Amino acid sequence: MKKQFTMKIENLKIRIDELISLADLVLQTRKDSDFGSYVSSERFNEFRSASLSFLKNTFNETHPFYKEFEERARGANPYSVEEGRGILKAAKSEIFGGWIFTIKGLISSEIFSDFLEMSEYLLKENWKDAAAVMTGGVLEEHLRQLCIKHGISIDINKNGKMIPKKAESLNTDLSSAGVYNILDQKNVTAWLDLRNKAAHAKYLEYSKEQVEIMYSGILNFISRTI
Which of 12, 24, 103, 138 has the highest Cβ tally under 10 A? Predict the structure, then answer.
Protein backbone atom coordinates (compact mmCIF):
# COMPACT_ATOMS: atom_id res chain seq x y z
CA MET A 1 0.00 0.00 0.00
CA LYS A 2 2.73 2.44 0.96
CA LYS A 3 4.63 1.57 -2.22
CA GLN A 4 1.51 2.22 -4.32
CA PHE A 5 0.96 5.54 -2.55
CA THR A 6 4.57 6.57 -3.18
CA MET A 7 4.25 5.68 -6.86
CA LYS A 8 1.05 7.73 -7.12
CA ILE A 9 2.75 10.77 -5.58
CA GLU A 10 5.72 10.39 -7.94
CA ASN A 11 3.35 10.28 -10.93
CA LEU A 12 1.63 13.44 -9.72
CA LYS A 13 4.97 15.19 -9.35
CA ILE A 14 5.96 14.24 -12.89
CA ARG A 15 2.63 15.40 -14.30
CA ILE A 16 2.58 18.76 -12.56
CA ASP A 17 6.14 19.45 -13.71
CA GLU A 18 4.97 18.70 -17.25
CA LEU A 19 2.13 21.22 -16.88
CA ILE A 20 4.45 23.91 -15.54
CA SER A 21 6.79 23.27 -18.49
CA LEU A 22 3.80 23.50 -20.80
CA ALA A 23 3.04 26.95 -19.36
CA ASP A 24 6.59 27.99 -20.21
CA LEU A 25 6.12 26.74 -23.78
CA VAL A 26 2.88 28.70 -24.10
CA LEU A 27 4.65 31.85 -22.93
CA GLN A 28 7.26 31.34 -25.65
CA THR A 29 4.49 31.92 -28.22
CA ARG A 30 3.93 35.44 -26.90
CA LYS A 31 3.27 38.14 -29.49
CA ASP A 32 3.02 41.85 -28.81
CA SER A 33 0.92 44.22 -30.87
CA ASP A 34 -0.64 47.65 -30.63
CA PHE A 35 -3.71 45.97 -29.18
CA GLY A 36 -1.87 44.13 -26.42
CA SER A 37 -0.04 40.85 -25.84
CA TYR A 38 -1.35 37.40 -26.63
CA VAL A 39 -0.20 33.78 -26.87
CA SER A 40 -1.12 30.86 -29.12
CA SER A 41 -4.76 30.08 -28.45
CA GLU A 42 -4.24 26.42 -29.37
CA ARG A 43 -1.37 26.00 -26.92
CA PHE A 44 -3.22 27.98 -24.26
CA ASN A 45 -6.35 25.85 -24.54
CA GLU A 46 -4.22 22.71 -24.28
CA PHE A 47 -2.57 24.10 -21.13
CA ARG A 48 -5.86 25.20 -19.55
CA SER A 49 -7.75 21.98 -20.25
CA ALA A 50 -4.93 19.71 -19.06
CA SER A 51 -4.37 21.76 -15.91
CA LEU A 52 -8.04 21.88 -14.95
CA SER A 53 -8.32 18.13 -15.46
CA PHE A 54 -5.27 17.54 -13.27
CA LEU A 55 -6.47 19.83 -10.48
CA LYS A 56 -9.96 18.34 -10.53
CA ASN A 57 -8.72 14.74 -10.32
CA THR A 58 -6.03 15.46 -7.76
CA PHE A 59 -7.93 17.80 -5.44
CA ASN A 60 -11.56 18.32 -6.61
CA GLU A 61 -13.69 21.06 -8.15
CA THR A 62 -14.32 22.76 -4.79
CA HIS A 63 -10.63 23.10 -3.90
CA PRO A 64 -9.19 26.63 -4.10
CA PHE A 65 -6.51 25.50 -6.58
CA TYR A 66 -9.14 24.39 -9.09
CA LYS A 67 -11.45 27.35 -8.52
CA GLU A 68 -8.68 29.94 -8.74
CA PHE A 69 -7.21 28.39 -11.87
CA GLU A 70 -10.62 28.25 -13.54
CA GLU A 71 -11.26 31.92 -12.71
CA ARG A 72 -7.83 33.42 -13.38
CA ALA A 73 -6.48 31.45 -16.34
CA ARG A 74 -9.21 32.27 -18.84
CA GLY A 75 -7.73 34.25 -21.73
CA ALA A 76 -5.01 33.43 -24.25
CA ASN A 77 -2.66 36.09 -22.93
CA PRO A 78 0.62 36.03 -20.96
CA TYR A 79 -1.01 37.25 -17.74
CA SER A 80 -3.47 34.32 -17.65
CA VAL A 81 -0.70 31.82 -18.30
CA GLU A 82 1.46 33.28 -15.55
CA GLU A 83 -1.48 33.21 -13.13
CA GLY A 84 -2.14 29.57 -13.98
CA ARG A 85 1.52 28.65 -13.66
CA GLY A 86 1.66 30.25 -10.21
CA ILE A 87 -1.32 28.22 -9.04
CA LEU A 88 0.26 25.02 -10.35
CA LYS A 89 3.47 25.83 -8.47
CA ALA A 90 1.45 26.25 -5.28
CA ALA A 91 -0.25 22.91 -5.93
CA LYS A 92 3.18 21.36 -6.54
CA SER A 93 4.36 22.53 -3.12
CA GLU A 94 1.35 20.90 -1.51
CA ILE A 95 1.89 17.65 -3.38
CA PHE A 96 5.60 17.58 -2.52
CA GLY A 97 4.63 18.16 1.11
CA GLY A 98 2.48 15.04 0.98
CA TRP A 99 -0.72 16.77 2.12
CA ILE A 100 -3.24 15.79 -0.53
CA PHE A 101 -6.49 13.83 -0.67
CA THR A 102 -7.43 15.48 2.63
CA ILE A 103 -9.06 18.53 4.15
CA LYS A 104 -6.40 20.89 5.51
CA GLY A 105 -3.88 18.06 5.42
CA LEU A 106 -5.18 16.38 8.58
CA ILE A 107 -5.02 12.82 7.30
CA SER A 108 -2.69 11.53 4.59
CA SER A 109 -2.67 8.25 2.72
CA GLU A 110 0.58 7.42 4.50
CA ILE A 111 -1.40 7.23 7.74
CA PHE A 112 -3.79 4.77 6.10
CA SER A 113 -0.75 2.63 5.30
CA ASP A 114 0.53 2.80 8.87
CA PHE A 115 -2.79 1.69 10.35
CA LEU A 116 -3.17 -1.10 7.81
CA GLU A 117 0.31 -2.33 8.65
CA MET A 118 -0.68 -2.31 12.33
CA SER A 119 -3.80 -4.31 11.46
CA GLU A 120 -1.67 -6.84 9.60
CA TYR A 121 0.58 -7.17 12.65
CA LEU A 122 -2.41 -7.71 14.94
CA LEU A 123 -3.69 -10.46 12.68
CA LYS A 124 -0.33 -12.22 12.71
CA GLU A 125 -0.41 -12.07 16.50
CA ASN A 126 -3.94 -13.58 16.47
CA TRP A 127 -5.60 -10.43 17.81
CA LYS A 128 -8.42 -10.63 15.30
CA ASP A 129 -10.82 -8.37 17.21
CA ALA A 130 -8.46 -5.41 17.48
CA ALA A 131 -7.46 -5.93 13.84
CA ALA A 132 -11.11 -5.86 12.75
CA VAL A 133 -11.80 -2.62 14.61
CA MET A 134 -8.67 -0.91 13.31
CA THR A 135 -9.14 -2.03 9.69
CA GLY A 136 -12.79 -0.97 9.80
CA GLY A 137 -11.76 2.43 11.11
CA VAL A 138 -9.39 2.88 8.16
CA LEU A 139 -12.24 1.94 5.80
CA GLU A 140 -14.62 4.47 7.35
CA GLU A 141 -12.08 7.28 7.09
CA HIS A 142 -11.39 6.32 3.48
CA LEU A 143 -15.12 6.59 2.72
CA ARG A 144 -15.17 10.03 4.31
CA GLN A 145 -12.19 11.19 2.27
CA LEU A 146 -13.74 9.81 -0.93
CA CYS A 147 -16.88 11.83 -0.24
CA ILE A 148 -14.82 14.99 0.25
CA LYS A 149 -12.88 14.32 -2.94
CA HIS A 150 -16.06 13.86 -4.99
CA GLY A 151 -18.03 16.73 -3.46
CA ILE A 152 -20.42 14.53 -1.44
CA SER A 153 -21.56 15.91 1.92
CA ILE A 154 -20.24 14.02 4.94
CA ASP A 155 -22.75 15.64 7.30
CA ILE A 156 -26.51 15.59 7.64
CA ASN A 157 -28.87 18.17 9.12
CA LYS A 158 -30.73 16.73 12.10
CA ASN A 159 -33.04 19.05 14.03
CA GLY A 160 -31.09 22.07 12.83
CA LYS A 161 -27.73 20.60 13.80
CA MET A 162 -25.15 19.22 11.37
CA ILE A 163 -23.93 15.79 12.44
CA PRO A 164 -21.54 13.35 10.69
CA LYS A 165 -23.17 10.75 8.47
CA LYS A 166 -22.79 7.13 9.45
CA ALA A 167 -20.37 5.05 7.41
CA GLU A 168 -23.13 3.09 5.69
CA SER A 169 -24.77 6.33 4.54
CA LEU A 170 -21.44 7.45 3.06
CA ASN A 171 -21.18 4.08 1.34
CA THR A 172 -24.65 4.44 -0.18
CA ASP A 173 -23.96 7.99 -1.34
CA LEU A 174 -20.67 7.03 -2.97
CA SER A 175 -22.21 4.13 -4.84
CA SER A 176 -25.17 6.25 -5.96
CA ALA A 177 -22.74 8.87 -7.28
CA GLY A 178 -20.94 6.23 -9.33
CA VAL A 179 -17.66 6.49 -7.43
CA TYR A 180 -17.70 2.68 -7.23
CA ASN A 181 -20.12 -0.07 -8.23
CA ILE A 182 -22.83 -2.04 -6.43
CA LEU A 183 -20.54 -5.00 -5.78
CA ASP A 184 -18.08 -2.71 -3.98
CA GLN A 185 -20.98 -1.21 -2.03
CA LYS A 186 -22.10 -4.63 -0.84
CA ASN A 187 -18.56 -5.55 0.16
CA VAL A 188 -18.18 -2.31 2.11
CA THR A 189 -21.49 -3.02 3.91
CA ALA A 190 -20.23 -6.48 4.93
CA TRP A 191 -16.89 -5.08 6.15
CA LEU A 192 -18.61 -2.38 8.19
CA ASP A 193 -20.89 -5.02 9.71
CA LEU A 194 -17.89 -7.11 10.77
CA ARG A 195 -16.20 -4.03 12.23
CA ASN A 196 -19.35 -3.24 14.22
CA LYS A 197 -19.49 -6.79 15.59
CA ALA A 198 -15.91 -6.44 16.80
CA ALA A 199 -16.57 -3.01 18.29
CA HIS A 200 -19.58 -4.37 20.22
CA ALA A 201 -17.75 -7.41 21.57
CA LYS A 202 -19.61 -9.95 19.41
CA TYR A 203 -16.38 -11.85 19.03
CA LEU A 204 -17.92 -15.27 18.42
CA GLU A 205 -19.88 -14.10 15.37
CA TYR A 206 -16.85 -13.99 13.07
CA SER A 207 -13.53 -15.78 12.65
CA LYS A 208 -9.91 -14.74 12.19
CA GLU A 209 -10.15 -15.98 8.60
CA GLN A 210 -13.04 -13.61 7.92
CA VAL A 211 -11.02 -10.70 9.32
CA GLU A 212 -8.11 -11.68 7.06
CA ILE A 213 -10.45 -11.67 4.06
CA MET A 214 -11.80 -8.30 5.20
CA TYR A 215 -8.27 -6.92 5.52
CA SER A 216 -7.27 -8.08 2.02
CA GLY A 217 -10.50 -6.78 0.53
CA ILE A 218 -10.19 -3.34 2.12
CA LEU A 219 -6.54 -3.10 1.08
CA ASN A 220 -7.53 -3.79 -2.53
CA PHE A 221 -10.53 -1.47 -2.34
CA ILE A 222 -8.49 1.48 -1.06
CA SER A 223 -5.77 0.87 -3.64
CA ARG A 224 -8.34 1.04 -6.45
CA THR A 225 -10.29 4.05 -5.21
CA ILE A 226 -7.69 6.30 -3.59
Answer: 138
